[in-house]
């Protein structure tokens, strides 16, 4: 049975991973056209014939579930059921995919052309493909790729087509539909579109969930969606959204299918197409609305080298195995299955837990390039450092990363100086080497720029660079939090360190993938890794840093430094500047200009606090911890600040105040 | 569940068996004509003869003495078994040394002797009443292992008053009483609790087998609870009546056992289940005798106390006499069958039949595996003409109508009533079937389906001779979940077998055996070749356990008619809630505070 023990191997060094094959290689040596028109006959779920899009729609519209909700909505609104039914039909029309093999072939042709120009290699683990092929035949399959780029879902379909696997139907954000022609093309290659927010719309939810479930129950096609909900602009995994996961699990809970298999897929880009776009977006330059002409402008990027892509298809995870002893399916026996119900607490926490597990599985199989190590070091040396020192430190970090289980793609049989220099060459837009010294490109110095503009330019570089460092955070996050906890704790007593650790986990649970409720486990994992690397020793309930552990701990501390500072700046803002009538909308610009002031005044050297992602996460943390609360005034939401609480959080983060006895402490 | 074996051995009239119209014996040692380590009559069994052909021995059943040419192939292909090479024969007789010595209560024995009620503590008598027909019980017997705990003595009361005396003495001397009817329990209900230190008395009801009176004005009969199903039916038939209660075990199971397990009969659509048939129950408990004061057809006098007894599984007392509804024997009876392209269509048809409330006396839907199995049990065809007709039928269904032989399934039907109504009814059902793609497939197929019901139990013994373990279990489930439940349970079994190291693909098969307004009863068969397994019974039990979990998770009940016994006790709390269980416990505590009826079933 698929992976009953997801983390059975305690030592991450021992993780076994498959080898990769480059799928572009064959494309470079044979006809693209032939490839696009070749025979495509994927294996299907238990020999099922794929269903015509129209038949699928009528199945959805005639389902008991939808009929029930239509009647309900009709009773509540006083509209005739026919009209509501019509509405449902319109929603479905707007949503549904219209997979067409000809469109797929068109994409197969054009994408091959594009991929060959953009990327050196597209590497796929073929064993994962074989596992997937097996899984598709036996159970409904849900593909869960990581989401870093627009490329992701085209790439996924492209790979599945290449390997003659059933093409997925993909949940895509409605914003794509704005791109008229492309939107329809995507629809015909299997995308279906969902509105970004439809919180209270019962009918929309019903149509949407029934559509997904119908496809799942009948195994018409693998379903693909992004657990993270949206592209991560920071290259750090986003905390998972559980709405869709809930939907695809329900048919299992209700016994409508024997099992559902979730396949975590890690897509790692050596360079992301949207690299600098993201940094600007995070700094408050609004995201360009998706438009076809915008995409065409993006052709400029075709002339650049984006390195290689690694796509790792993970071991399919059986929901049945995961849910064993965790979800009592009998709970679903007492209400007809077509009547929608809120998931129980038990179910909800199971789904959340699963979502985190899957994201962690995605992270675990993310392929990391040497540049990621270098970026992490450079960010701790913003003033730049000697090339030889950078090489030396990169090698040191490589050892540490590997002992923590990083999936590092370090070229074999290549001198390390060469590895470093070719990474620098690929990322020459971000980093420059002059006089044997390596430093970040900190904006164009020429011309007349205001201090704000200069700051902004530096911030773009830092955030771009951070997006690479972020890729390795999942490897170090637990040891790094422990390092900070050791640093901040009043003593080396294990339970005090744990209190501190637990506080930081709570504080950063929107920032990093830390499954709520796993704190004890995370702590043990962190201790294990640091003890194993010889950085700390545990002596009679004390955690003591060893001599040779100093450098490791200082690196790990440095890794989280910007986050600690960033959150403190947000706290500081709330204590010093925020007025009573601060609305949610005003928050981001306000905190940004607060930070800009601090930086310009020379009181702050942390650029990452300018990132709206960090600002949002910090606010979410403060809201979650009750230091800030939302108050609805008229039709605006304002933020009410409990200054005392914010202040104490700020001081605890800075290590100036001992951590309050955490409720979780039970070691 | 109780059952008594053929004190009057006769065969079921409906299945046209050979009748021996005399009492084989009236001695309490009925085990002489029954297998001691398997199902049914000693003279009836499946075997592979010297030519390697399967045959069914004896003269009792329609299949008796016939050669079954396709069984061997089916058997070997289905289970990966080998008739020639891999035999696992049973030990020929019980190793009496393995039997724990009788732990007799002398004072009780003395008082019992004074009453004149017969009793025995012979080894054979005790072992025979120490078990039902669960796989682990039969397996242990075949291996000559016997049981950890068996009754210390057996007693044969002759009437209600005898039972009253026995129970009084049991209370006085604190001995444990386990009522025994027909011995066909498949829930471990007859097993003696190993931790029971008191003397265990098996109270065998087989001598209480009379029809006390028949009331033709109200169409009820007063019957002693030890009577065996087929005897009851035969005796009533003599007067032109029947009860219509025909559980598959009716050759051997007893009226008291039916009451104690909430039994269900094949023809419940016309006659009702046991709880619908019973008008009055007399039961002897440690607190005294409980019975209602009248035989009104329905009462509003608080919760029906009969329902404490129905399904009590021998934990509260002994049912001694029952007043039961009877009906005139139907004028006309007709079998029928329908072939469906697949199981889904079949279930949809049965659902529609239930919706229109026009179910025949019996309607059962077999899945494809069972359909194929039924084929394997076809006797040698005597004439070329028959085989030609068979061939034509097959051609018509699979080639002309395009049914996939690995998908199609069959419903068997039994209609009863006056001729005209039966024919009308038949048409109505076939019309519904046609809407779901069903094709009428003849009376023969239908009739054979019902004959198989009685011989199928014998097949397990054949399997056990060749390393194949098999068992059946059942549930009831709302209509909308029938298909999901069947699919998931089968898949779960296959999955569990694989995980537990079963080397061969298991056989899983199900049939819908009863229809109700709100759901259906589903019956599963499950068997596998256990070669290479260290402890096949344990493996089997783990798989069955998982299958039951799966049933419950899919909205099925803990049991439709087999009962709970000891096999399914662990799920009772989950099934009826803490409070529900508390209610049952408080009844037990009041009625039997000293746990005289100490078989420890149910609660």
SSE topology sketch:
The complex is a heterodimer of chains A (667) and B (603).
Chain A: E1 21-22, H1 23-29, H2 32-37, H3 53-61, H4 64-77, H5 81-95, H6 101-118, E2 121-124, H7 126-138, E3 141-145, H8 151-162, E4 169-173, H9 180-188, E5 191-194, H10 202-217, E6 223-224, H11 243-253, E7 261-269, H12 275-282, H13 292-297, E8 308-313, E9 317-318, H14 319-323, H15 345-364, H16 370-379, E10 385-386, H17 387-403, H18 416-426, E11 431-434, E12 437-440, H19 451-488, H20 494-507, H21 519-532, E13 536-539, E14 542-545, H22 549-576, H23 584-600, H24 612-624, E15 628-633, E16 636-641, H25 643-653
Parallel strand pairs in A: 2-8, 3-6, 3-7, 4-5, 4-6
Antiparallel strand pairs in A: 1-2, 7-8, 7-9, 10-12, 11-12, 13-14, 15-16
Helix pairs in contact in A: 3-10, 4-5, 4-10, 5-10, 6-8, 10-11, 12-19, 16-17, 16-19, 19-20, 19-21, 19-22, 22-24, 22-25
Chain B: E1 46-48, E2 54-56, E3 67-68, H1 71-79, H2 106-115, E4 119-120, H3 123-128, H4 135-142, E5 153-155, H5 160-173, E6 176-180, E7 200-204, E8 211-215, E9 220-224, H6 229-238, E10 241-242, H7 255-261, H8 268-271, H9 274-277, E11 278-285, E12 288-290, H10 306-309, E13 318-325, E14 327-328, E15 332-340, H11 343-355, E16 362-366, H12 368-376, H13 384-400, E17 409-417, H14 419-435, E18 439-440, H15 443-464, E19 468-478, H16 482-499, E20 507-515, E21 519-529, H17 536-553, H18 572-591
Parallel strand pairs in B: 5-7, 6-7
Antiparallel strand pairs in B: 1-2, 2-3, 4-5, 8-9, 9-13, 10-14, 11-12, 11-13, 15-17, 15-18, 16-17, 16-20, 19-21, 20-21
Task: Write out key terms for the chains shown.
heterodimer, A: 667 residues, alpha/beta, 9-stranded mixed beta sheet, 3-stranded antiparallel beta sheet, disordered N terminus, disordered C terminus, B: 603 residues, alpha+beta, 5-stranded antiparallel beta sheet, 18 helices, 21 strands, 19% strand, globular, glycerol-3-phosphate O-acyltransferase activity (chain A), membrane (chain A), glycerone-phosphate O-acyltransferase activity (chain A), GPAT/DHAPAT_LPLAT (chain A), transferase (chain A)
